[in-house]
Every structure is written in C-alpha cells, then in structure tokens.
## 1
Amino acid sequence: MNVNGRPMRTIWRAADGRSVEIIDQRLLPHELVIARLATLEDAARAIKDMAVRGAPLIGATTAYGVALAVATDPSDGGLEHATQVLAATRPTAVNLPWALAAMRQALLPLPPHQRHQAAIDRAAATRRPR
C-alpha cells in the first residue's frame, strides 16, 4: 500500500518488539490511523470488527495474534486457547484457518520456551512481500 507516495505495509511489528501495528482499514481512504495490537484479544477484535480486511491481511493478523498469545502463555493449552479465540472471529475467512494450521504446525513440536520467537518468525513470513 502506498501512503502519500511512500510504500507502507498494512501490518508490522511495533518498535517495542512485542506488539504489532496495523493500518485500521475501516477509516480508509479518509483517514490514516495506526492501531496497536498488544494482546490476543486485540488481534481478535481487529479481525472481528474488520479493522483488517482481505484474506492475506486476515491471515497475517491471525498469525501475529497467535504470536501475541504465546508471548504470555506458550503452553499447549495457551496455543489451543489462542486458536479457538481467533477461529471464532471470522469463520468464513479463508486465510484464517490456514494461518492457524500453519502456526500450530510450526509451534506444537517446539518446547514452550522456543515458541514465542518461532511464532514471531512464522507470522512475519505470512505477510505479503512489498
């Protein structure tokens, strides 16, 4: 996406290294608002309320939502909870279950202490190249 002639992603890791920022697409094209997603619930709300739109961005937001969740609870139960919360946000979105399956496949074989960084890496890989 170009904003004032400058290429910009629609989702990226925030400068704090922990949260994610998105362009709130509900306000486009009249206003450019950047929203911070710091928790699983923030990511779920962004998907459900359509702050993110389009299959690729929904998939990327889903993947980052899992990463935000495992930052606080990297256990198998925490991963399952994140999967359930995100799956309920927009059940008909094609990339949402794809992203959840990809994240589960990448994270479940790992010990919990390795899951957060792996989740961040996998979520970043789901974004479209510029």
Note: Residues 55-72 form the longest helix (18 residues).
## 2
Amino acid sequence: MREAAEAEERAFYAERATPEWLDTLAPLGTDDQKPHLTEAPWVVVLFRQSYGLRENGKKQTHYYAQESCGIAAGLFIAAVHTMGLVTLTHTPSPMAFLSELLERPANEKAMLVMPVGYPAADASVPDIARKPLESISVWK
C-alpha cells in the first residue's frame, strides 16, 4: 500500500497539484513520502459503499453514504484517541488504486486511510489555526 500511495503522491506533487495547493501544504511539511503507512501497526481504510446490490442484481442506492462515512470516521478517530492511540488521516488523490490493491467491489470507493498506533517519540502536531466561531455560526 505504501509503494502505491507514494507513487500517487509523487504524481500529485509533480503534476496535479496547483501552486496554490502546494503553498497551502507547505507549512504542514507534507511530501510524497508516507512512512507512517508501514510504521503503524494497523492501517484502516474506510470505503464508502454508494450502492448495494439486490438479490435480483439491481442496484440499491445507499442514501447519505458520504455523510454517514464522515460521521463514522469521526467516531472512529475519537475512539482511537480515547484508547491512547493516534492516527494520521491520509487522503491520496486519486484513491482508485486502493480499490484494486485491496480487491474491493465496484460499488465501494476509498474515502480515507487511517494508520493507527502509538505516537512516535518525536511526533509533533502542526499548529493549524481554526476559523473563529463567529465566522461559522449565527446566534439569534
């Protein structure tokens, strides 16, 4: 998985990312190297199932799949942190290689990669400023 993810990341940084996107990523210190994918004892890949298949073979739409998976990811991350573990969410773009690599069916699309384990002794978290509450809420 790491080799495939790094190949996608090399293409992203060299060909697909706009200068603006690269400027936004620069303070985070990210690049095409993803050692956390082999250093973590567990790697969880969240797949969104956009539709199911009925017994007759016809598609059955799964409504709110994106939102449900987002909520599930948040709950999973909170549970991981409660256990004293950490995760570094990874969203390679594009993610289609994960479906092939992990032999997932066509109705599943990778959404998020979460290596899980104990933090490295030298781990640090970037100080990312959040939007002020008043810029995202209305109180009446």
Note: Residues 36-119 form a domain with the NADH Oxidase fold (CATH 3.40.109.10).
## 3
Amino acid sequence: MKNIIVLTGAGMSAESGLKTFRDADGLWEGHDVMEVASPQGWYQDQELVLEFYNQRRKQLLQVKPNKAHKLIAQLESKYRVQIITQNVDDLHERAGSTRVLHLHGELFKVRSTSNESLVYRWTEDLNTGDLCKTGSQLRPHIVWFGEAVPLLDDAIEKTKTADILIIIGTSMQVYPAASLIHYIPENTPIYFIDPKPNISSSSFNNLTVISKKAGEGVEKLMEYLIHNS
C-alpha cells in the first residue's frame, strides 16, 4: 500500500466557512495576530486571548467538514494516508481521517502553562481560573508566533516516507511547514491544489498543479490518482 502524505493549510477549511488564519491585511478575525497568537499577547492581555479562542472554538462547533475533507478521508481505502496540517480545526478527523498531525496545535485542546505535557481536550469556554491538575492556568494548545513547533521532527520523518505528496490550500510560504516539501524522496509525484498557485510545474520534478479550490481540486486529484495507479 502506497504512502500518501497530505499537507493542508487554511484553504482546506475555507469551504467549510472557517477562517483558520490571518487575512491578506494581516488580521485574524479583526485582531493583529501578535495580540492573540504570541506569548507577548498572552502576557499583555490574557483575557483578550482567552476570549478570542473561545470565539474560535464556538465557530468550529458550528461548521462541518467539506467535500475536500471527505474525499481525502476516502483515500484511506486504497492508500496509507498521513495528513500534516497547519490548521487547528478538527475537520479532517470529523471527516474520517485517522492519521492527522497538527503542526500548529489544536483548538479543541488546552494545556498547562507550567507543563506542556499536561494537555486536555476542551470544547467549552476557557477562562481565567481554569487550572491544570498541578494548579497552573490553562492556555490554548496552539503554537504561537515565536514558539517552537514540537511536532516538526515527527512531520519530517513522516514526509520522508512519501510515495505521493499532496498539498492543499497552503501557499507553502510559512516556515517551518514550508520546508517539508524538501524532505520527500527524489522523484516523488507532487500534486499542488490551490486556486492561485504560487509554484509552477517547472519548480519540482513530477509536479502537477491543480488551479482549483480544495473541493474541486481534490475531485480532479482523484482522476489523476486513478489514471496513474
């Protein structure tokens, strides 16, 4: 069974009505990202950060996986599929995907501010005074700007096993996630799905660019995979 590695970003969840990252103007849901997605922002205004993620959590509860999520999940019937996502939503899992690595954390999890290994599932509001079992304040389980990406090494090792690489809804401009494409074995087929692709077929060997949004693009991808299987 061939290994498919799927790298996904904000464009994957856009068709579900979810904004998972900052807009073109640099704002995330109207906020400067450094106010709500950095350790500095947390120390300056903890209440603002908690309320911001409480709203994101509520929004996530109201949306559903889209066609692209569901089609990627169906690939598991014929391939061993590993998703590596920059998204903090759980839409891949809700669509049925069983192997999902979240590089930037998960919205439905929180962790201790004193012990990063104390992680809890959390779907309600998180407030000041909500503590871990050792008595420290809980914070969103999100990798903020300026923080290390703890699962990066794991993602690199998984990417090295790719027989096929699929990239959906990410510009591959945000590091360190963007570096993963350089770890695939030589001559691995790459499928890049994005309505405004910023790479061309001459950028990499065996690159197929599908200039469509996630849902239509993954449908087209299925045709390529069937033809080339």
Note: The chain has a mean pLDDT of 91.
## 4
Amino acid sequence: MVTKPNFPARLADFRKQRGMSHLQLATTADCSQRHISFLELDRTRPSRDMVHRLSMALGLSLRQSNDLLLAAGFAPVWTESPYGADTLAPIRQALEFMLAQQEPFPAVVVDRRWNLIQANKGAVAMVEFLVGPLAPGAAVNLADAFAAPDVLRPHLKNWTEVVGYLVRSVEADAATDGTTETTALRNRLLDYPGVREAVASPSIEAATAPVLTMRFEKGRTSLQLFTTIATLGTPQDITLQELRIECYFPMDVGTRETFRRWSSSSQGSDRKR
C-alpha cells in the first residue's frame, strides 16, 4: 500500500497535541527515536503494526486511530455501528437500566457532539416544564439548547458560567479530535449572542463552589442541579466510545422534592389511563 502524504503531518500533530517529544513517543511505542523522526520526515513508511503501536502510545481514540491508519494507507480497524444495530442491543439495555435507576432525576445519553440519543422520564419532565413539549422524533442537541438565546437560557440564572464551561469543553474536544464536525459545533456555539463573552470571562464565584450548580428558575419553581458524566469502560466500537451518560442530581431539598412530585403525578396519570 502507498502511504498517503498526510501521515507524517498527522503523526506530528498528534504527538505535539499531547506534548510528547520524539524520545517520549519512541519509548512508549517501543521503537527508536530515529524511527519516529524518520516517520515524521516521510523518510520511512510505517507498518500496520507500527501505526497501531503509535495509536496506543499517543492515547488516540478509536476514530483517531482509524484516521491514522487511513493516512498511512491502511484500512481502518474499528467499526462505527448505528446505535440501533442488533450487536449493540446489550449496551442499549444496560444504558436503559442506568437511566431508569436515575429516576426521578434526569439522565440522558448523548454522543460526542451532544446530540441527544436517549432520555429518561425525569429529563423529559424537566425539559417540558422549562420549554414545553418537544415534537415527537425531534432532533435535540443539548449544547445548542444551552447556548441558544431562546431555549434553556431564559430560565438558567447562571447561564454565563454554565455555557462558558460547556463551550470550553467543546473547544477541548475540537482541539483533541480535529474533526470538522466538532469544529463546526464549536463555531456554531460561539456564534450565539453572548457566548464568546461568557467563554472569555469565567466566574470567580463559580470557582469557589465544589461543583458548578445549574440554577433554573421558572415561576415559583427553582431547580438546582449538578451533573456527572460517565462513559463505557471498554469500548471497541466508535459509536460506543463516543457515548456519554449524563446524570443530573439535586443540590437541595426543594429540587429533590420537585422531581419526586413530578414523578408521582406522572405515575398517577399513567394509572388513570
């Protein structure tokens, strides 16, 4: 196979992003410093095994590992299955179990670019309370929902701190994966009114708290929530590696009781039907 000319540049970019010297990468990949230098200078071509070793040494994601293989002229190794594929059924069942255990508090499954894939009843109840019912099958991007001026923002009292943190995390993703899709998401978020200013001015007050709490208010109802984000531990599929499970937890008694009340009302309505 013929090595594509962008392999040396891709390898050098990944190495520099991770702050590794030629020697550090060579030591981790179990090869010589000279070999790394020759690869980046396009004076030698990598074997398939060497590309795999470099990917492991650099800590690349499965998607990035495939990209490096393609740049070196090899076929990609890692699959990217549709979320609804039969092979992923056990994973979907596990995620459904996790979301159910989080009830009555919100939990969602999103992809790397914050597109909503799955939500529990607590998440649906919160969104419907804040912005109204969503159209069946409507595509939802949580990053857009937080950054846009007319979705969650009117009810999020510390929007500046929350959106600043969110966009900085998307910027970090864009810098790491180097994909046009993540870069496009970052640029789209930054184009919303006030977002650039929010990113440029982190709150000192927010930094003094143990976690950044989202403070929603609508009418007489106040919701104070913090989140955790989990990923699958041993993914061998790109789709699964890029999934994130975000769980929302109450920061005060009032928020806890509000979600429990919503859950009880919903169960009562189900029984009546």
Note: The chain has two domains: 7-71, 86-272.
